[in-house]
Write the structure tokens for this entry.
Amino acid sequence: MAADVGTELLRDRISDLPDAILVSILSLLRLDEAARCTVLAFRWRRLFTSTLLFDFNADMPGRRDIIGTVNSILAAHPAAPVRSFSAGWSFLPRDQDLSGGCWLQELARRGVEELFLDFNFRDWSHRIPDSLFDCFSLKLLRARYCTFPDVPKAGAAPPLACLTEIELWRVSISDESVNFLLSQCTALERLKMNATSKFGRVHIRSPSLKVLDSDGDFDELFVECAPNLEWLFGHYMYMKGGSRRVCLRIAHAPKLKFLGYLGMNFEKIEIGETIFTEDRINVKTLMPSLKTLAIEVSYTEEGYIDWIIQLLNMFPCLEVLYIRILGPGSKLLHQSRGTC
């Protein structure tokens, strides 16, 4: 019996696992860590080769020619599929050309579905290659500290048709590019933009968009047609209103559940036929879908109580109200949450 116990303890249970589970384990490791596993057995070498780049983590601290290294790895394994690609290249030289070697075009050819691009945190000078728009299988894009490419020329085939989620952090992107993403990415459900470049006019015309989460750093936000939009959030939209005369227009968003932050210093808030301006409040259209509203008011502003009451009249099914109260100098005095 003791001999049986000893034999059981020496049994290689990991090798009993099916290839699918071992491949999943390898995909969770960094590329160099997965390579070390090949010394375990010939079977691991075979698995490593077949799944080498399935989840390609290209974070390579200490390497100077990162672009060249990535191109070399892709060239050495021309048939390896790539599902996701992650690049945390925080110390790239300022003059590094990211389009060298066509690495992104090669990823597009292999059907990449997820891209995580994080570049030099000291500036936004690194530009994502134009071949981003060749990634027809792309579903998720997260980018930090870079410049978004210009939109394709008119007449080209609709790109990024599978893209469902975009997250941009400290990315320089033009109004034209934002509006292009909102109108041409027909599967886009979530767009998050924080600490990005300032916008002029953001125009939402998207049949699929559900969430727009941003700083609210724009002059005008026009929701023309967003039948599935549920969440419209501008973190500091109310702060932009005083100096930049922000205008918010919502023409068609029948499923909108969350809206904020609104403030009295907007030049105009227009929802359907309802218009809020500095000297006129005319409530004609109700929005029964809205459940949560976030507003900013200053107790030094004359008529702020009447403004809140008129605003609430638009949302007969409102359940939660967030209020930020500002004092002199736009100093935040109080923030509260209440139920309606």
